[in-house]
Amino acid sequence: MAEFIRIVGARENNLKNVSLTIPKRKITVFTGVSGSGKSSIVFDTIAAEAQRQLNETFTAFARTFLPSYGHPDVDTIENISAAIVVDQKRIAGNSRSTVGTITDIAPLLRLLFSRAGEPYVGYSNAFSFNDPQGMCPRCDGIGRITTLDLDAFLDRSKSLNEGALRHPDFKVGSWYWQMYAGSGYFDNDKPLAEYTDTEWELLLHGTGKVPVEWQGGTINSTYEGIVVRFTRVYINKDAATMSDRNREIFERFTRSETCPECAGARLNAKALSCRINGHNIAEMSALEVTELVEVLRRIDAPQAGPVLESLIDRLGDLVTIGLGYLTLDRPTATLSGGESQRVKMVRHLASSLVDMTYIFDEPSVGLHPRDVDRLKKLLVKLRDKGNTVLVVEHDPDVIEIADHVIDVGPRAGAHGGEIVYSGDVAGLHEADTLTGRFLRHATPMKTEYRTPTGRLTIRDASLHNLKNVTVDIPTGVLTVVTGVAGSGKSTLINEVFLAEHPEAIAIDQSAVAANRRSNLTTYTGILDPIRRLFAKANGVSPSLFSANSAGACPDCQGLGVIYTDLAFMEGVKSTCETCAGRRFKEEVLAYRLRGRSISDVLEMSAAEALEFFTERKIRDVLRAVNDVGLDYLRLGQPLSTLSGGECQRVKLATELHKQGSVYVMDEPTTGLHMSDVSHLLGVIDRLVDQGNTVVVIEHNLDVIKHADWIIDLGPEGGSAGGEVVFTGTPAELLEFPHSHTAAALREHAG
Ligand code: ADP
Ligand code: ADP
Ligand code: ZN
Ligand code: ZN
């Protein structure tokens, strides 16, 4: 069997014609600063080629239903096996997708009930909320129902003639309105508040045939009360198929509530009546996984022995990976990125496929150092089953388990795209690369702390697992919120604190702009001054230099590339032939500013642009962009191509001049190399020194060591967490005996 994946001449994005070999059935970790080209190798080259080769194996007919993958820009790739990407994308799921269904643990639990439940009910389908046999008939297995919100729909102070029906389709004079006003059932001038019980009943729930006066004639029509009609016409339609306008209206006039029939359990009465040791299947699915394992261990049912065993095994994987605080009935749509990735990992661990290539994108995201050890064990388990494991990772602890390391650099963007080291971990520690250097040098613990200027108090917070938490957040300093996954950090900060302090600014990793036309210059507002400079230098109108003007290339509308969207297929991107990627018409390109065309300027990196421009307003923005470590970004690169970490730093750059604000960041080190982290800390220090308050949720020990104040939550995840374990300085935490964070700090202390 071929022992290596061989890649020759890779050129995706910033890759400089690189060649590399990757040992098969081993763990290879890709390191390097953010923007160096790790994803370009792993996702855009290896995963893309594996997927393309897989698609080639389908018939031409089947392929028309699959997304089409172009050849990645690479000379050859040999010995690649089918690849599975386990990334941090949220699990797109409807309300029927839960932790139980996505991990395939739910079917095992159903099997257990069909074998060992009392009274015996039948096949395991009878316990499925996705099967007509098991689902609650009222909510169709969703657990929630949508009803007409009469308070929103009706203005009780008005009569029908005055417009008591607020929905636009029922406005005075419309056909629906006429149905009520022309029915003869009501006094059209009487305010609804004065209706008798009979009139209410007719208005809301009545049915029957009535002659309705309409446009001068009389039509015999079916009368339906408002609730009946609204339910038939609107609620029974799939909201996903509605137009944006209709969905908006729909949401304004409806409310969602727990299903009264199943109380949210999603199953019908028969399924819920079946029990094992007193628990029905909905109750078991609502237990935290760690508790569920205990309940299952106490079951004595020889006829279900093998099922019980594999259930306990699979749940054990969830616990091992630090997700023991989740419940099987948790909708996947509510999981964080890190949780989603680990849930997907559990699904793959159970699979019996071998000789696959598994690709992980920073699996340590969201994991406390305590749980990183368990993650490492799972990666090793996957390798030992005979798979090739590729991991993009920055955490020194995870890098340690690599059989092979590929360090990409030396820096980011145009200054990266090369392999600067490949070999074992010991060699990486000696290597003269940024990664090697940072592995050798430990960040010192901060010993001088800023003095708070005041405090913001969170009082009696009890959302999710929080146990009546009251805690002060000091202002004017850097506070780091720590604790194992599931301890309640996001609940406390992102939900409770942000809800109480809407003036606080959350800087997250979500996309900055969905639009292909937005880039650094449009987002930061420097495109306008740049256009005016060009206009002034050439005595023409500034509008010639914008992407949607008469000056732009008519074929690509100033994008330089053409996107072809095809039904069923991923869009294809190609350089615009008309302008050869230069975005503007020839005559516009002839206008120069200090010898450069507008197209040349958009091709500049932020660092080059900082040298080119002398104007203060433009320079302030560019300096901020450079300060957050995005010096390599080209001004014209669409923001839609940025990674989450890059998006977060673009947002930071636009905030750097503010004062007196409160900033909240959730794991800002995601996607960042150790050297990027020290850069980020510099930026945060600047924000705080300018008089801002910064609150950061982090597991990264370098960030924790850099805090002025620490709030540690725990002691564990889920119901065993939700308390403040410690507040104080990093030095005080180091001495504190009862905290997982303290233990991790001691282990990694300088
Ligand atoms: P890493 O994974 O090491 O953070 P990437 O491989 O994502 O780095 O990016 C390498 C470089 O290529 C960066 O300068 C990035 O901005 C650029 N890049 C990534 N994707 C695209 C794209 N779709 N179009 C243009 N440039 C891109
Ligand atoms: P952390 O940020 O420390 O990882 P979280 O605040 O995300 O912890 O979670 C704390 C607890 O609240 C966990 O038990 C988690 O399962 C629960 N939880 C979080 N979000 C939701 C939600 N949307 N629905 C139900 N439970 C939730
Ligand atoms: Zn129901
Ligand atoms: Zn063009």
Automatic annotation (TrEMBL):
Residues 445-746 form the ABC transporter domain. It comes from the Bacteria. GO terms for cellular component: cytoplasm. The keyword Oxidoreductase does not apply. SUPFAM superfamilies: P-loop containing nucleoside triphosphate hydrolases. Pfam families: ABC_tran, UvrA_DNA-bind. It is found in: Cytoplasm. Gene3D superfamilies: ABC transporter ATPase domain-like, ABC transporter ATPase like domain, P-loop containing nucleotide triphosphate hydrolases. GO terms for molecular function: ATP binding; ATP hydrolysis activity; DNA binding; nuclease activity; zinc ion binding. InterPro entries: AAA+_ATPase, ABC_transporter-like_ATP-bd, ABC_transporter-like_CS, P-loop_NTPase, UvrA_DNA-bd. The keyword Repressor does not apply. Keywords: ATP-binding, Cytoplasm, DNA damage, DNA excision, DNA repair, DNA-binding, Excision nuclease, Metal-binding, Nucleotide-binding, Repeat, Zinc, Zinc-finger. One of its GO terms (biological process) is DNA repair. Belongs to the ABC transporter superfamily. UvrA family. This is UvrABC system protein A. It comes from Thermopolyspora flexuosa.
